[in-house]
Automatic annotation (TrEMBL):
Pfam families: HTH_34. The lineage of its organism: Bacteria, Pseudomonadati, Bacteroidota, Flavobacteriia, Flavobacteriales. Residues 15-93 form the Winged helix DNA-binding domain. It comes from Flavobacterium alvei. This is Transcriptional regulator. Gene3D superfamilies: Winged helix-like DNA-binding domain superfamily/Winged helix DNA-binding domain.
Length: 97
């Protein structure tokens, strides 16, 4: 198995890399902040975050604050371990001659 085979396909998208990177260094991040940080549309964030949730890489919390819906995200333990492994494989790939 080559180094490239160890890369996680679930993190190939730049949006998913961005979501995971933000969540690795923050606890809970709400929809509005995540959307602004990544400069993406509502639909783009919703579809990519849903895919990451399906893989159990992130947790999505939906609640009401007053009468307004609020969606927040955080990385799961599996997500943290998987993303670190993905980054380590990327680093090894860059170091190959």
């Amino acid at each position: 198995m080559g180094i490239i085979d160890k890369l996680n396909k679930d993190f190939e998208s730049r949006v998913r890399l961005g979501i995971m990177s933000i969540l690795m260094v923050n606890d809970w991040v709400d929809f509005t902040e995540m959307k602004a940080l990544l400069n993406i549309t509502d639909g783009n964030l919703a579809s990519h975050s849903s895919a990451l949730e399906k893989g159990d890489y992130i947790e999505i919390k939906k609640e009401f604050v007053g009468k307004k819906p609020k969606t927040s995200y955080r990385v799961t333990n599996l997500g943290r371990v998987s993303f670190v492994s993905h980054l380590n494989s990327l680093e090894k790939l860059f170091k190959t001659k």
